[in-house]
Design brief:
Catalyzes the condensation of isopentenyl diphosphate (IPP) with allylic pyrophosphates generating different type of terpenoids. It holds the Pfam family Prenyltransf. One of its GO terms (molecular function) is ditrans,polycis-polyprenyl diphosphate synthase [(2E,6E)-farnesyl diphosphate specific] activity. Its EC number is 2.5.1.-. The protein is an alpha/beta fold. The protein has a domain of 174 residues: 3-Layer(aba) Sandwich (Undecaprenyl pyrophosphate synthetase). The chain is 48% helix and 13% strand. It has a six-stranded parallel sheet, with helices on both faces. The longest helix is centred in the first third of the chain and has 21 residues. It starts with a helix and ends in a 7-residue tail after the last helix.
Amino acid sequence: MKLRDLVYGLYARRVEGRLDHAQVPKHIGVILDGNRRWARADGRTLEQGHQAGADKIHDLLGWCAETDVEVVTLWLLSTDNLNRPEEQLTPLLGIIEDTVRNLAADGRWRVHHVGTMDLLPARTQTVLKEAEQATFDVGGILVNVAVGYGGRQEIADAVRSLLLDHADRGTAMEDLAETVDIDMISEHLYTRGQPDPDLVIRTSGEQRLSGFMLWQSAHSEYYFCEVFWPAFRKVDFLRALRDYAARHRRYGN
């Protein structure tokens, strides 16, 4: 073991030992950013970068289980990513499909897709649906896999679903306009029935949400980490939890 790894291990245990589990966020959203830049910096192919990022998810969920996190939302593919050249998108979708299969096969996680299913290839849709069905009764961490996801698209889909729902009920448009509220829209989001994220982590040093969970993250705390996602370590995760626990959350201001 390298001296640096030993030092990081000791430091991680120290941070973890001081972590108050009562202050741990129950729902963490993660923007897994930096796979391609990590690959370029390390002399790897883009596909190897995405695969390294996918492999890191297993570690993250293990750390979440150790610290009593209940829901994790992983942004794996945005709606904008679907416009990438086919030679980039096809292998990326293959890695995502394998990742979702592995999550379902693990037996510890309940997998739920968030995103617009119709925008995805038929094979990807099948993998996502089968993973949800196979893990429906699993009692572990709820893992939202955001594939073909965009925050604006989610809100548009929620409003569309709300309108169609009330049209089926025969609700007059004027009556709906007078009664629609935040809770009604929330009931039609991809994450309906789930708690909003307490903490949103973004790796790679970028300090923006890029449309991630626009509605749900209104009162979330944000943690921006400099490291690229494939290089994200347990100590980085624990630092994010420590930073979150030290904040005094103020809702609305």
